[in-house]
Amino acid sequence: MRATRIVLVVLGVLVLAFGAYVLVTTVKPNRIGGLAVWLIAAVVLHDAVLSPFVVLVGLGLRRAGRALRVWVLVVVQTAVVLGSVLALVVVPEIAAKAHGAKNPTVVPFDYTGRLLLVEGVLLVVVVAALVIGFVTARRSAGTVVESTTIS
Amino acid sequence: MLRRLLGDSRAVLASPNRNARSAVVFGRLLGIAFVICFGTGLFSHFLQDPLPWMRFPTRPTQLYQFTQGLHITAGIAIIPLLFAKLNTVMPALLQDPPVRGPLHLLERLSIAVFVSAAIVQVGTGLVNTYQWYPWPFPFRQVHYALSYVLIGSLVIHIATKLPVIVRYWRARDSYDAEGRFVRDDTVGSELPPYGLAHPASAPYPRGLVGRVMRWVDGAPAASTTGGAEPSRASRPDDESRPGGQDAADPARNLSPEPSLGVRAGRRERIARRGFFAGVAAATAGVVVLTVGQSSRLGEPFNVFAPRQRGRGPAGLPVNRTARAAGVLATATAADWTLTVVGPRLTRTFSRAELVALGMTEVALPISCVEGWSQMARWKGIRMRDLLATVQAEPSSEVRVTSLERHGGYRIMDMGPEYAADPTTLVALELNGATLDLDHGFPARIIAPGRPGVLQTKWIERIEVRS
């Protein structure tokens, strides 16, 4: 174990150092400054914006989880995760299209409309799950359920 | 003050999903995806920038279509997996003390490098497929250099976490018979124990964090812990609380109560599976809705890909138009000729003279570095036949020059393995019609297993180099 770890660390440092060497030999210094800003911004964006957002959503789901049936919560949570990831992937695409595609075969779709449609479908699924869960819960007079959260 | 905040926040973040086993499972998937991207990325890089001794396979002709489609698809799948992994290990961000010594500082720094390289690499890679470059650095060089930084820091990360990875590699070593996570403090996991961080019997922390947790658990604001009815997922030991919902529930009271461990295990298992279901759905969703640009199976579900198969002149997408390349006048000039320079002999051909040399039809894909690809039927003169007209060997290294005024791919070098291949053409027709101007009229290169940027359009000169 110890030998393996040492070998891996040495190997990793060598590969990382080679990457740094490739970077400084192929990219102009002023451009590396721009890259550094992006690398730092990525960590800040994740730690200061995305993580708190996920924590808040998780806490909300956890609170909601007290009143919801398991399958309802799983459906809601899956829809939230899928909807967030799709938005994360498609919003830059909408921006790219707004910025101007180089020719009509690049980003050819109406991504705003399509994203709204898909998110709308997810919303309908969530509402349907909540309604069905609510109705069946009333019928069976509040069977105790387990709950699940993303956080 | 800071330490209390760190501790309280970690308590909030403690969860049945945020344990070392989940981190190992997501880490494994991410590791596979990163290695796939690294391998296919290096292949793509060296196809474009080969070292002098490098030769590449020309069969299967769809090899690059496959590897680059895989590169982009795996890269897209990384997005939800990366967020799942970062979410799983989030409490480690707030560990107390933040740094335990020089080695621990280096370890945390290597993780910072890893996370930031991963986010920038995947994010810029994604937006690059949209052909949008809103960053102040050259994409290709940075994507290549960062790939080594990423893989290097990944290897360091695996080395530092190896005891945890080995300990929790198998599910049966990670969970007890009831399904509860088996905590092992000897392997150095930095994730807070779920169920011990903030047991139901402990008072809530003071201040904002305590208030938030009370709200989440639905506890009365004034109460410390007594009559609270906590969330079943977040409160590990909410058993048989008098006056709580459990007691008020007739259905539950009819059956014998399962033991505390069984119920806790069931809750943890459900929470974990719910989380994995969400991540699996997000990964499948984002892949299925975009993979249609590079796979026939995905075509009907192509909702969000930046390309659509069959869309474009002659039913084929275009990366660089004749207008963008600045060849509108030169490519349509009536006196266009192709110059072929052999070792001893130079000849020029008009388009009609090329046709007269005898045309061959081949089916080869256009496979872009940006991941989209499409099969097409090409008709033109074999490169080896053209080389024979200037008494050059089929296995020659050739240099092809385009009419393009500028751009990194104006001059393209082709190794002997491609020049000699019977499917490598100077193409004049595409899908049964004269080559469209945007597809390279009057003549272009098409060769098996090469990236689209090397399928040079609007060619004017072919030179035998050896």
How would you portray this structure in words?
The complex is a heterodimer of chains A (151) and B (466). Chain A is mostly helical and 151 residues long. Chain A has two domains: 1-52; 65-151. Chain A is 79% helix and 0% strand. In chain A, helix 3 runs antiparallel to helix 4 (111-139). The longest helix of chain A has 36 residues, at 29-64. Chain B has 466 residues and is of the alpha+beta class. Chain B is 44% helix and 11% strand. Chain B has 16 helices and ten strands. Chain B has helices spanning 2-13, 20-48, 63-88, 90-93, 102-129, 139-167, 171-174, 207-217, 245-248, 250-254, 260-288, 322-325, 328-332, 351-356, 383-389, 416-419; strands spanning 338-341, 346-349, 360-367, 373-382, 398-402, 411-414, 425-430, 433-434, 444-446, 459-464. Chain B has a five-stranded mixed beta sheet. In chain B, strands 3, 4, 7, 8 and 9 form a five-stranded antiparallel beta sheet that branches. In chain B, helix 2 (20-48) runs antiparallel to helix 3, helix 3 (63-88) packs across helix 5 and helix 3 (63-88) packs antiparallel against helix 11. The termini of chain B are far apart. The relative contact order of chain B is 0.12. The model of chain B is unreliable at 196-201 and 223-254 (pLDDT under 50).
Total beta strands of chain B:
10
Strands of chain A, total number:
0
Order of helices and strands of chain A: HHHH
Q: Which term fits the overall shape of chain B?
A: elongated
**How big is the Rg of chain A?**
23 Å
* Molecular shape of chain A: flat
